[in-house]
Amino acid sequence: MRTLWKGSLSFGLVTIPVRLYPATEDKSVSFNQLRASDHSRIGYQRVAKADGEEVGYDHIVKGYEYEPDRYVVFDADELEAMKPASSRAIDILQFVPLEQIDPIYFQRSYYLGPDPAGAKAYGLLSKAMHDRNTVAVCKITMRDKEHLATLRLHDEMFVLETMYWPDEIRQLSLEDLDIDELPEPRKQEVQMAETLIENLTEDFDPTAYSDEYREKVMAAVQAKVEGQEVTVVEEPGEPAAVVDLMEALRQSVESARKRGSGAAADRSESQDEASPKAAKAGKKKAS
């Protein structure tokens, strides 16, 4: 796996040589814009909106829009002088319980692995953090930008998650939505909602979910590459809206129970199929 960043992790007076690796990959489907007649790629020119004239790189400056259509301009030297000092160190600032950090702050995940020379110190820190059940809050500079981040254990590796700064988190309240307060639900409605939640509660398995849109697009792409005709299956219409809240909850609970019964039957069938194989394997082992 390619290294994105190489430096050190500072833990008090202990310095651990580490490397940063990508932990996630965006697999969203993207398309290129083409000319319909010959499938030539569409390109764009840098033009001034005032008169439509093309502008070369040598005549482009950077400006910050402080009011609509009003800018303060910076040259390259001014911007360079304001960049954070080049740092190859991740500075641990404090340790906190993970539950104290709202997930809204998390931005992007990276694996933080040790250099061979730092394996012992890396293992020491990971063991101590595991025993204390804590995460580290730290700062890291990447691509000329300073990031607030957390460091937590994921299996045997540290995961560094960059975070939004506090002033980057938008606030929203009911008052902003012209709602004074939420209506108080009836006791029966709460009980029915809790029953629905209970019927839908199970262990999280991310492999149970997939990007259906991406799968359909890629299947259509493969079909077109192979010269096949792409058939579009119409999706079933939206179920009729139920106005009565209790009736909607009742139908939802019934649907969840049916789904649970089906899943239980599938598990039972899988176990029944596996039992003869296991018994057969046991006999072979005994002989």
Give a description of the structure.
The protein has 287 residues and is α+β, with helices and mostly antiparallel strands. Among the domains are: 5-24 and 83-168, Beta Barrel (Ku70, Chain: A, Domain 2); 182-201 and 243-267, no CATH class. It has 5 helices and 9 strands. It has helices spanning 76-82, 119-132, 187-200, 212-225, 245-286; strands at 5-11, 14-22, 62-67, 70-74, 89-96, 106-114, 135-142, 145-154, 157-163. The protein has a 7-stranded mixed β-barrel with strand order 1-2-6-9-8-7-5. A two-stranded antiparallel ribbon has the order 3-4. β3 and β4 (70-74) form a beta hairpin. α3 (187-200) runs parallel beside α5 (245-286). The longest helix is centred in the last third of the chain and has 42 residues, at 245-286. It is extended.
Based on the model shown, name its key terms.
single chain, 287 residues, alpha+beta, Ku70, Chain: A, Domain 2, seven-stranded mixed beta barrel, two-stranded antiparallel sheet, 5 helices, 9 strands, 32% helix
Q: What is the end-to-end distance?
A: 46 Å
What is the overall silhouette? extended
Write down how many β-strands occur, each being a DSSP E stretch of 2 or more residues. 9
| Count of helical regions | 5
Order of helices and strands: EEEEHEEHEEEHHH
- Spans of at least 5 consecutive residues whose pLDDT stays below 50 are 283-287
The overall pLDDT average reads 86
Structural class based on helices, strands and sheet pairing = alpha+beta
Residue share in β-strands: 15-25%
Q: Classify the fold: give the CATH topology of the domain at 5-24 and 83-168.
A: Ku70, Chain: A, Domain 2
Q: Give the name of the CATH architecture of the domain at 5-24 and 83-168.
A: Beta Barrel
